[in-house]
């Protein structure tokens, strides 16, 4: 922890703490965050000094064993979670699975999982798999995002949604939906993939039951960085750990033949923690510990507003699909455009990196720790030229070969 | 791949490719393998050049997306698996869970999972969790390791065991048990945690159905290195992916709302792969690619035989619990001793690192890539003095504070 170190001003102090390649305007930090300069050294230390010198002893001497919880507490501060309520590990797909399984277990008499068509597909796929494994006739009910509030009924067991839509950036009202859900006896599972590090989240204040998120987007933890899982303290001692691995056992090193869950969120650990990945993430959290998320949010809103204004003025053929009201969106701006895939390839070829989501969405993420107004205006200028001059119609941008 | 590079002689050529701390004799590579010298540089390159410079583009440019399968093929060679049959990711707990779920699905009319009391506890815990989620009255039947063959009956759905016992080093007959299981309509799931990199495994030859293992032990992939999952090609197109994440979808980047499994073992991917951890593992595989596993096994047998002979001669109060017959054991030697915990602490204090498993097992792993005869004899000498002089009775070695 670095609580005694002075707070960092967003962008003015933080920009210099990230590596960004020459000639690149990076508007895809909502997919993979940029590299914190401290990450390479931090991971090298873990490899050389901890693994190399301490070997197996490093589970104690370097604190590897307690790292998933210690890092969880650093994430907790950014998402309004109580200390000791967040556990790191695995991937977001697995963490939403654990959360959904525990949530369904709390409402055994109901059979409907309510989600929306703006949820990220892996959440839906994992739910499908769980429903099949459970074999008890659960149904995954999908409605349009704007219909989710009205779809909350006493038939619903679990509300299972992503706060910020990965495609449009539309943001759900977590506090309002959670309150309505609870009034109807519904348990909530929130996916914070596009929320954590993008905007203030107040899990405790909203009374959320379960939440999960990844750390490689706005939190800049690196490719394949571990996920986090939040269990409200009021549920943690009862929540069933469906993926009941030894690290979540009450006494992992007793090597008992029978499973007994550890207390609290510790039971949501599964196997051996990803030590190297957690080390990279800690380098990023050294920055996050010293940043005010409210300041990040204010900057993010200003950047998104500026980009919307610049693009709408310069490129009338692009249609904004992100809510114009800052309170209803996350930290990304998406435009629909028929030549969206090709236009994004043309942008990338000119150093402006956003991404594309089928069928026609050009997606731009705004990460105020390392993106400022100058880059936003310049990106809009380059986009304008690509649309105006029909650069995107060139054959080299038409080939679909991307994994992004 | 490095197939054109000359083969390495075990120990004579490979010892210099690992870092081992001054004054340490490391006999715990069966828990966490030693650091390959190339790992730090390899991970630094992934962080600085791939993540830092290529950012999101590195999923294509650096091959991150195909890495889990490419690395799986490098592991396949070491475990006698067909190319394209091994997938990397997650942890061993999760991979045995996926394997068990798929195996049970193939035998829907039976309800018994057969395992033994020498299986690693997390395998048993994950099975308990799966049984509860399934809710269809499955039972986990545990027998003593030596009783496993007789316990194979037509009631059994899945034989679910670890080939080499983590405590005693006793090795099951994979080919024999698999053949008998198949004759009775039983599907097999093999945990190779203490096999991969320790001895030749022949999954294809044995006709194994599913197998999983970790890569941080004999394979030297580093703390929290990813696990692997093997699915026999004859099952791969039908096997149900219970943890049905988007990376195992037939078209992950179509972002369909409904799940459709990818072909083959690709469906056993779950979420975003652990890129940094896979990079560290690849540095270790650069060595493994050039080593003959039969030569490793011959060296391992010689080292274990030597250690047994030295310790039995010097320390008559220790009782060998590992099979004396090399064909019946892995690459570790365990002794039971009433003061085992304290004696291991005393050994570690003198630089001989093994580990302890309750209730009274002193465990020593032999990893021929970086351990030779000199270290084995010296370790036995130090152990002799600790037992003879009753060093282990000193109060400083009595405190139980270990996470090992």
UniProtKB/TrEMBL annotation, chains A, B:
<dbReference type="GO" id="GO:0005737">
    <property type="term" value="C:cytoplasm"/>
</dbReference>
<dbReference type="GO" id="GO:0019805">
    <property type="term" value="P:quinolinate biosynthetic process"/>
</dbReference>
<comment type="subunit">
    <text>Homodimer.</text>
</comment>
<feature type="binding site">
    <location>
        <position position="194"/>
    </location>
    <ligand>
        <name>pyridoxal 5'-phosphate</name>
    </ligand>
</feature>
<feature type="binding site">
    <location>
        <begin position="120"/>
        <end position="123"/>
    </location>
    <ligand>
        <name>pyridoxal 5'-phosphate</name>
    </ligand>
</feature>
<feature type="binding site">
    <location>
        <position position="216"/>
    </location>
    <ligand>
        <name>pyridoxal 5'-phosphate</name>
    </ligand>
</feature>
<comment type="similarity">
    <text>Belongs to the kynureninase family.</text>
</comment>
<feature type="binding site">
    <location>
        <position position="191"/>
    </location>
    <ligand>
        <name>pyridoxal 5'-phosphate</name>
    </ligand>
</feature>
<feature type="modified residue" description="N6-(pyridoxal phosphate)lysine">
    <location>
        <position position="217"/>
    </location>
</feature>
<dbReference type="GO" id="GO:0097053">
    <property type="term" value="P:L-kynurenine catabolic process"/>
</dbReference>
<protein>
    <recommendedName>
        <fullName>Kynureninase</fullName>
        <ecNumber>3.7.1.3</ecNumber>
    </recommendedName>
</protein>
<feature type="binding site">
    <location>
        <position position="93"/>
    </location>
    <ligand>
        <name>pyridoxal 5'-phosphate</name>
    </ligand>
</feature>
<dbReference type="InterPro" id="IPR015422">
    <property type="entry name" value="PyrdxlP-dep_Trfase_small"/>
</dbReference>
<feature type="binding site">
    <location>
        <position position="272"/>
    </location>
    <ligand>
        <name>pyridoxal 5'-phosphate</name>
    </ligand>
</feature>
<keyword id="KW-0663">Pyridoxal phosphate</keyword>
<dbReference type="InterPro" id="IPR015421">
    <property type="entry name" value="PyrdxlP-dep_Trfase_major"/>
</dbReference>
<comment type="pathway">
    <text>Cofactor biosynthesis; NAD(+) biosynthesis; quinolinate from L-kynurenine: step 2/3.</text>
</comment>
<dbReference type="GO" id="GO:0043420">
    <property type="term" value="P:anthranilate metabolic process"/>
</dbReference>
<dbReference type="Pfam" id="PF22580">
    <property type="entry name" value="KYNU_C"/>
</dbReference>
<comment type="pathway">
    <text>Amino-acid degradation; L-kynurenine degradation; L-alanine and anthranilate from L-kynurenine: step 1/1.</text>
</comment>
<dbReference type="GO" id="GO:0030429">
    <property type="term" value="F:kynureninase activity"/>
</dbReference>
<dbReference type="GO" id="GO:0030170">
    <property type="term" value="F:pyridoxal phosphate binding"/>
</dbReference>
<feature type="binding site">
    <location>
        <position position="162"/>
    </location>
    <ligand>
        <name>pyridoxal 5'-phosphate</name>
    </ligand>
</feature>
<dbReference type="GO" id="GO:0019441">
    <property type="term" value="P:L-tryptophan catabolic process to kynurenine"/>
</dbReference>
<comment type="function">
    <text>Catalyzes the cleavage of L-kynurenine (L-Kyn) and L-3-hydroxykynurenine (L-3OHKyn) into anthranilic acid (AA) and 3-hydroxyanthranilic acid (3-OHAA), respectively.</text>
</comment>
<feature type="binding site">
    <location>
        <position position="92"/>
    </location>
    <ligand>
        <name>pyridoxal 5'-phosphate</name>
    </ligand>
</feature>
<dbReference type="InterPro" id="IPR015424">
    <property type="entry name" value="PyrdxlP-dep_Trfase"/>
</dbReference>
<keyword id="KW-0662">Pyridine nucleotide biosynthesis</keyword>
<keyword id="KW-0378">Hydrolase</keyword>
<feature type="binding site">
    <location>
        <position position="246"/>
    </location>
    <ligand>
        <name>pyridoxal 5'-phosphate</name>
    </ligand>
</feature>
<dbReference type="GO" id="GO:0009435">
    <property type="term" value="P:NAD+ biosynthetic process"/>
</dbReference>
<dbReference type="InterPro" id="IPR010111">
    <property type="entry name" value="Kynureninase"/>
</dbReference>
């Amino acid at each position: 922890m670095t609580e005694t170190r002075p707070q960092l001003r967003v962008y003015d102090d933080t920009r210099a703490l990230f590596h960004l390649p020459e000639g690149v305007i990076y508007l895809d930090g909502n997919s993979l965050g940029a590299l914190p300069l401290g990450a390479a050294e931090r991971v090298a230390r873990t490899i050389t000094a901890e693994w190399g010198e301490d070997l197996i002893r490093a589970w104690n001497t370097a604190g590897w064993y307690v790292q998933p919880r210690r890092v969880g507490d650093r994430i907790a501060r950014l998402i309004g979670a109580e200390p000791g309520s967040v556990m790191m590990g695995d991937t977001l797909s697995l963490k939403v699975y654990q959360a959904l399984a525990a949530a369904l277990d709390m409402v055994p008499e109901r059979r409907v999982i309510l989600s929306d068509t703006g949820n990220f597909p892996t959440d839906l796929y994992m739910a499908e798999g769980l429903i099949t494994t459970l074999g008890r006739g659960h149904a995954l009910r999908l409605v349009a995002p704007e219909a989710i509030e009205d779809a909350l009924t006493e038939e619903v067991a679990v509300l299972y949604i992503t706060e910020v839509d990965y495609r449009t950036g539309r943001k759900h009202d977590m506090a309002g939906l959670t309150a309505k859900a609870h009034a109807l006896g519904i348990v909530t599972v929130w996916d914070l993939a596009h929320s954590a590090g993008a905007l203030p989240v107040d899990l405790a204040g909203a009374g959320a039951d379960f939440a999960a998120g990844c750390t490689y987007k706005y939190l800049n933890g690196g490719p394949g960085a571990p996920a986090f899982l939040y269990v409200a303290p009021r549920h943690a001692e009862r929540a069933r750990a469906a993926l009941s691995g030894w690290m979540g056992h009450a006494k992992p090193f007793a090597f008992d033949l029978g499973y007994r869950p550890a207390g609290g969120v510790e039971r949501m650990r599964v196997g051996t923690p990803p030590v190297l990945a957690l080390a990279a993430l800690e380098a990023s959290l050294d920055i996050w510990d010293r940043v005010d998320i409210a300041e990040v949010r204010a900057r993010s809103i200003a950047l998104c507003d500026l980009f919307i204004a610049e693009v709408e003025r310069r490129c009338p053929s692009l249609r904004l699909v992100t809510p114009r009201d800052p309170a209803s969106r996350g930290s990304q701006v998406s435009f629909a455009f028929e030549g969206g895939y090709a236009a994004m390839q043309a942008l990338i070829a000119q150093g402006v990196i956003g991404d594309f989501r089928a069928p026609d969405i050009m997606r731009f993420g705004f990460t105020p720790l390392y993106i400022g107004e100058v880059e936003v205006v310049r990106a809009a200028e380059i986009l304008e030229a690509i649309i105006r001059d029909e650069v995107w119609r060139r054959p080299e941008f038409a080939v679909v070969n991307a994994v992004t």
